[in-house]
Amino acid sequence: MTTAPAYTELTGEYTIDGAHSRIGFVARHAMVTKVRGSFNEFEGSFAVDGANPALSSARITIQAKSIDTRNADRDGHLRTNDFLAAEEFPTITFVSTGITQTGESSFDVTGDLTIKGVTKSLTIPFEFGGAAKDPFGNDRVGFEGATSINRSDYGVTFNAPLEAGGVLVSDKITLEFEVSAIRNA
Length: 185
Prior knowledge:
Layout: E1 12-16, E2 22-29, E3 33-39, E4 42-48, E5 57-63, E6 67-68, H1 72-79, E7 91-101, E8 106-115, E9 118-133, E10 139-150, E11 169-183
């Protein structure tokens, strides 16, 4: 597939704007509902090669302790060795290893996700949301993507059986990325 000509003007280095981005997750709880959360502290950057997206790259570092599900007790438990072991493994990282354009405005970003010291390759489908010059003169781009992982693949295995069957927390976790980034000067 050829690259849309408009992407060539996006070529450059970008820094993720944490104040206008979200890295979140969704897990099933007690087999009846979903719990949503996010990480409030993260940083990242990416390089866009608009003429050849395969030469683009991305990197994100998340502070595990910044997990936020809007419940202090649950967040405290998620930071323990039962889940993220945030004291021992303070960061969660994603480093791209390949980017493929899959449609006019869609891209698969393949990379290495490291959680709790375990690294696995995964692919995240992203949709290009657009580009604009913001009121402060910054060139800004947006991307949204989501993928699912099995938390047990990363050594996150805590669970509790339910009386009626099933478990307290799903193994499948959906990761969500809503990214706004500013081109570096």
